[in-house]
Amino acid sequence: MRRLSVVSRILPLAWLAPDIAAAILAGHQPAELSAKRLRDLPDLPLDRATERRVLGFPAR
Question: Which domain of life is it from (predicted)?
Answer without folding.
Answer: Bacteria
